[in-house]
Specification:
single chain
């Protein structure tokens, strides 16, 4: 593995030779043990690596051994073996608060990701861009380690772990090559917020770290800009009444002294901050709960509602007031945005939704569900409160749902589709999971109970997900896995039968796949592409829009066009952007839809008429990575009418990437 930067002439300067010999011997023993026994005695490597983590020279030596450590199977059998599923907020907690062994393994994993980001190591399941974004977010969550002295809690960690972690992040900062760290990290926060994710705890932590470190702007490299101040104000001081972050008690006293005109200005300021960033200050629930006792009519203004949302609010006042009373607290402040966006969507006008929400408000939780929520969200509020808050978040932002750190893209996609298109169905599934610890679905006339099945892909509860996903995904994952098992042996891809049964009757019964399920080679690829254009492209299908979002599958590639794996998405719509380019707008449940797939194909999340949570690509570029889609066989146009140049462009892009040698 090569290094782009110049190494010191004496590479072992500051590193004891015996430490390097001990490390190399431990890696060799691990390699031999895995080759023979299939086990991973990693503690020898951990113990040998630890003394090297205190200095830049020692970290250099570990960096040079990333390939050997990976090849030895050091990360095998653990979550770190699948770096594409790692979650920045979880990684940040592990390095600061984890057990010693977990902290050191996470540190070695981040050194590995640095090598991936710099192009010095190639990992089969994560791209350089993904690794770079991951490290930028983790670095933002640990800025205090970079620019300041260690906190007491860090200094008192066993085995001097606090000093190791500080050494690691200063090393990452040096080698990631940021000329203006503050500007880069603020841009990373805005890039994430442009997608309006449901889970923003990690983003708020990044904003908090940026706010704390702005007292030392020289250490961060750059000046404080308006983008940074807008984020900080949105979280800590969005209005004049809380401008200096005075605390809840003082703010409540100030509210009691405000006249109506001042309250109106507070409401407008809260709404502006929330809708411009997607972040909700913990002061906003204090304000809205105060209005419940003084001026209910001002709440729609505080929520920033349009005529559509305000009309829904006034049609269902008892329901909305109860949702606020039961769900909106400083600990659940984001659900104010969820509530606002749910009202803006107008889904309460669908007859089953309001009664379904009343059921959710009164729903008793089973012990298993309450325990799961308590373990993840804490006990500052009842588990029913956290669940109801995330119901509002998911219904308000169905395209902001993420799969967290588990390979459950199909189940997360289903939650998003139901929240978007069939909210009452989602609430029914959630009621079963939360009350009964069971979900029952039908497959080809037979019932499948999640209670009677073993684990699917999610062997443990998902991490860094909303409470709705926390309770439902393990059940849905088991059912999806069982449907797939029952479809094996039919000579075609099981998704043909599973997707329609699992996601609902609105899924098209026509099914096309680009590869042969037995050989993995391309199969009638030109016909596959022509059928997609004839079914979806408004220029060739009679200008019929996508009626219901449809499940699809893509071949994910990195910026070097390496194939990384298959992934489930949802096709939301096809439309012309502002530049009159026809684009496919789709939902990607992988937590971050901004990706570089190589050949100049970079998925866009804003700037090309995307709605919040959508990614988009020009049609030919999207189709070049498509490998499975559903359609309505009764509404497909004539495939032969699709121009050959469109078809050939998509084929060439595919054959230059994932479809090469297929």
């Amino acid at each position: 593995m090569s290094r782009d930067d110049q190494e010191p002439e004496n590479r072992n300067n500051g590193v004891a030779t015996e430490h390097l010999q001990t490390l190399d011997a431990a890696i060799q023993r691990l390699t031999e043990a895995n080759a023979i026994h299939g086990v991973s005695p990693v503690f020898e490597v951990i113990d040998a690596a630890k003394p090297l983590m205190f200095s830049p020279e020692g970290l250099d030596e570990l960096y040079e051994r990333v390939t050997a450590i990976e090849s030895a199977g050091f990360f095998g059998g653990s979550d770190w073996d699948y770096p594409q599923t790692l979650v920045p907020s979880l990684a940040a907690r592990t390095v600061r608060h984890g057990e010693p062994a977990a902290t050191l393994v996470e540190s070695l994993s981040q050194i590995r990701l640095l090598a991936v980001a710099k192009g010095d190591f190639t990992h089969p399941s994560i791209s350089a861009e993904h690794a770079h974004h991951f490290l930028a977010q983790v670095l933002a969550m640990n800025l205090d380690l970079v620019v300041g002295d260690l906190h007491e809690s860090d200094r008192l960690r066993p085995d001097q772990l606090g000093y190791i972690v500080q050494s690691l992040y200063r090393y990452l900062l040096e080698h990631l090559g940021y000329e203006n760290l503050l500007e880069h990290l603020v841009a990373e926060v805005w890039r994430i917020l442009a997608q309006r994710p449901v889970q923003v705890a990690g983003v708020k932590h990044m904003v908090t770290q940026i706010a704390v470190c702005l007292e030392k702007p020289d250490a961060l490299g750059g000046e404080v800009n308006e983008d940074a101040l807008q984020l900080i104000n949105a979280v800590f001081s969005p209005t004049e009444g809380c401008r200096e972050d005075p605390g809840f008690d003082v703010y409540t006293e100030r509210l009691a002294e405000m006249d109506d005109a001042t309250l109106l200005q507070e409401a407008i300021a809260f709404a502006k901050a929330m809708h411009s960033t997607g972040l909700v200050s913990a002061y906003m629930p204090v304000f809205i709960r105060y209005l419940r006792g003084r001026w209910n009519a001002l709440i729609p203004t505080a929520l920033g509602l349009s005529y559509t949302g305000a009309d829904a609010f006034h049609c269902y006042p008892a329901l909305i007031h109860t949702l606020i009373d039961e769900a909106l607290f400083p600990e659940t402040s984001q659900c104010a945005y969820g509530l606002a966006m749910m009202l803006e969507r107008g889904i309460l006008y669908s007859p089953p939704v309001a009664p379904s929400l009343w059921r959710q408000i009164r729903l008793p939780l089973c012990d298993a569900a309450a325990e799961k929520i308590g373990e993840v969200f804490g006990n500052s509020r009842p588990p029913e409160c956290f669940l109801l808050a995330d119901v509002l978040n998911v219904l308000g932002r169905p395209l902001g749902v993420g799969q967290g750190n588990y390979p459950t893209c199909q189940s997360t996609r289903a939650l998003s589709m139901w929240a978007y298109n069939m909210p009452a169905e989602l609430l029914r599934m959630l009621a079963w999971a939360a009350r009964d610890d069971e979900i029952v679905m039908r497959f080809e006339g037979n019932s499948i109970s999640s209670r009677e099945l073993g684990t699917g892909l999610a062997t443990e509860p998902p991490v860094d997900v909303d409470a709705v996903s926390l309770l439902t995904v393990p059940h849905l994952d088991r059912i999806y896995f069982e449907m797939g098992r029952r479809s094996i042996g039919r000579g075609e891809d099981p998704h043909k039968w599973v997707n329609a049964e699992f996601h609902g009757d609105h899924v098209g019964h026509g099914f096309r796949i680009a590869v042969d399920v037995f050989t993995g080679n391309l199969k009638d690829f030109e016909g596959f592409i022509r059928d997609f254009y004839a079914a979806y492209h408004p220029f060739y299908n009679g200008n019929i829009p996508v009626i219901n979002p449809q499940p699809a599958g893509i071949a994910v590639t990195d910026s070097a066009t390496r194939f990384l794996g298959w992934h489930a998405i949802t096709i939301q719509r096809l439309a012309l952007d502002a530049e009159k380019t026809m684009r496919v707008y789709f939902f990607n449940p992988n937590n971050d839809s901004g990706q570089n797939w190589g050949q100049g194909i970079v998925t866009s999340t804003h700037g090309h008429s995307e709605r919040y949570g959508e990614a988009s690509l020009p049609v030919a570029e999207f189709v070049s990575r498509l490998y499975v889609f559903h359609y309505d066989p009764l509404e497909i146009a004539e495939p032969s009418d699709v121009p050959a140049e469109e078809v050939h462009r998509a084929m060439e892009l595919a054959r230059g990437s994932w479809a090469a040698e297929r």
